[in-house]
Design a protein that fits this description.
Strand order of the largest sheet of chain A: 9-11-8-12-10-13-14
Distance between the termini of chain A: 29 Å
Order of helices and strands of chain A: HHEEEEHEHEEEHHEHEHEHEEE
CATH topology of the largest domain in chain A: Phosphoribosyl-aminoimidazole Synthetase, Chain A, domain 2
Oligomer: homodimer
Number of helices of chain A: 9
Radius of gyration of chain A: 19 Å
Low-confidence stretches of chain A: none
CATH class of the largest domain in chain A: Alpha Beta
Number of strands of chain A: 14
Largest sheet of chain A: 7 strands, mixed
Chain lengths: 341, 341
């Protein structure tokens, strides 16, 4: 079978980049082949390395979004936010520095590069960090489409939060409306004309996470940002890693009217598309009200809501409670939405 | 003028990626625009951040080499070595961990990805480090040519070496033969049939640098690896940053017969093409013999030689002493050799 990464004649498919089961299979079969290192095998969005009595947190993200400028942001803001958020999700809010690799096509407008650079600087200022080193490669016309950024970051933290720490009884909080980034990019790409209302949520979340950590303390059990593959993919991974079950309350999902409209027009589940300025927080039920209050007091958390609860149930299963006593099992798919981030 | 990056209609040219003056102009005009941070403005190949009484060293490199498999190595070995060497050149030989972003074209053979991964693992073992986090993006057929890797690394060191520390009277040592990587890649690309003898030198140098640091102590004043732009570009940058002059002794340059032959066939100066397993060391003259002995005792340093001396002369100038009392000024050019690394 062409799709099986163990087949010697297999080739990379778009699904391998979709953040779902195919990507997981590719990573397991290729990039973890022969790797025994537990930190690499943990497949966290950031790696955590002990450093004396603290932890060094390290992450990388490539961005290939098309178009590179979209309502609410651009590839530069995305690249800084993506890495800062990977670190923040590990509990690391102090980002010491970022590195930036730029791979650009011959003929790309230099003014656009400058716009991207300025946007990165603004996002760095919001995240209280800076780009300390970089690399630039130029490929010939037609060898790369526009611009690709690869950004890495490093930070230090006293406390590490993992995406695997959910416990039965926990509440899952979404820090705001869902699906905005992916739907805004797709709307812009297909010129749906929804740009006025529908904007990417792309933003660095380390400030918000700092407020959550202060409010929840040890009652914050897990965090993950629902980027590629969206909420569905993030919650499935959290459920699998913690061997618990998650029940989403459909009626509680924060979705903007514009996102609902775009999702309907595009025929896409808003839970399956990328967010770039949102986090899913697993907290002890007793802490949920205070965490919600802390979120609502932060500019990036005003639409935060409790969206799911964690149960013992079937390990790894994610259910959607549609109300009226009905629920259906949600499965990660390999929906190929290339260049959404 | 189309080439001036300040011109609003200017576009990226291949020369902007060649490691010469055009790249420098692009970086100054775009990526350092509005940046006051001294570490970013230092334009070192790695960034150095104080961490208590030690230093965190951070670097990133993107690799787009074509073909991805070449005599002596491949893009995977190149990506690991590139980052490890950036850290080593800053004096940091303990590499805590690497991150790896893979951007791959739909249809790329998975078996080739696996080969690249294995090669990265071998290079990591040689450098006594590991890949701790990664990211995979798939672009549609025709949107990226093959595979692009972007690798970052972080390490900790007690002592920092800069590429700006040359002093008049210093000797510049090359740790081995020059030009092999760039000439091997170009020979493979143009099927010159020199593959038997001409092989890339790509290798992680942190072990070699550790031996140099032990031997030279504080008499090691500066290091730089002559990657893109080759020896010419690296020495020019070192001369400019230290405001000194460098005189290369042409007769002393370690060049293999195969590299000489390939350079002649291709019409390329072997001093202008990338090395990926060599360093240029600026040491106090009194330490040169002992450093040479230490290098010759290491498998990656057997062809090490003193190739130049540092003088007060014209700040930033690099001269080639061709013997018989004649010398000529060497200038960095913008020779566009795309996808050499």
């Amino acid at each position: 079978m062409k799709g099986d990464p163990h087949d010697a004649s297999a080739r990379v498919r778009l699904a391998h980049g979709a953040g779902g089961p195919a990507m997981r299979a590719l990573i397991e079969s290729v990039f973890l082949d022969g790797v025994t290192d537990p930190e690499a095998r943990a497949l966290g969005d950031a790696a955590v390395l002990p450093l004396g009595d603290r932890f060094l947190v390290l992450s990388t993200d490539a961005h290939v979004v098309m178009p590179p400028f979209f309502p609410g942001g651009d590839i530069g803001r995305l690249s800084v936010s993506g890495v800062v958020n990977d670190l923040a999700m590990a509990g690391c809010c102090d980002v010491l520095g970022l590195t930036s690799s730029v791979i650009v096509e011959e003929g790309f407008p230099i003014e656009s590069l400058r716009r991207i650079h300025r946007s990165m600087q603004i996002a760095c200022a919001e995240a209280n960090t800076r780009i300390v080193s970089g690399d630039t490669k130029v490929m010939q016309k037609g060898e790369v489409d526009g611009v690709v950024l690869s950004t890495s970051g490093v930070g230090i933290t006293d406390r590490v939060v993992r995406d695997s720490g959910l416990l039965p009884g926990d509440i899952v909080i979404a820090t705001g409306t869902l699906g905005d980034h992916g739907l805004a990019v797709l709307s812009a790409r297909h010129a749906l004309g929804l740009e006025g209302e529908l904007r990417s949520d792309v933003a660095p979340l380390n400030g918000l996470v700092r407020a959550v950590l202060a409010s929840a303390g040890s009652k914050l059990h897990a965090m993950k940002d629902p980027t590629r593959g969206g909420v569905t993919s993030a919650l499935t991974e959290m459920a699998q890693k913690a061997s618990i079950s998650i029940v989403i309350d459909e009626a509680a999902l924060p979705l903007s009217a514009a996102a609902r409209a775009a999702a309907e027009l595009l025929g896409i589940d808003p839970l399956s598309v990328a967010n770039e300025g949102k986090a899913l927080l697993g907290v002890e039920a007793s802490a949920a009200p205070e965490v919600l209050r802390a979120l609502h007091a932060h500019p990036l958390g005003v639409h935060a809501a409790c969206i799911a609860r964690v149960t013992e149930g079937e390990p790894g299963a994610v259910w959607l409670d549609t109300g009226f006593g009905t629920r259906r099992l949600i499965e990660r798919d390999d929906l190929p939405l290339p260049r959404i981030c």
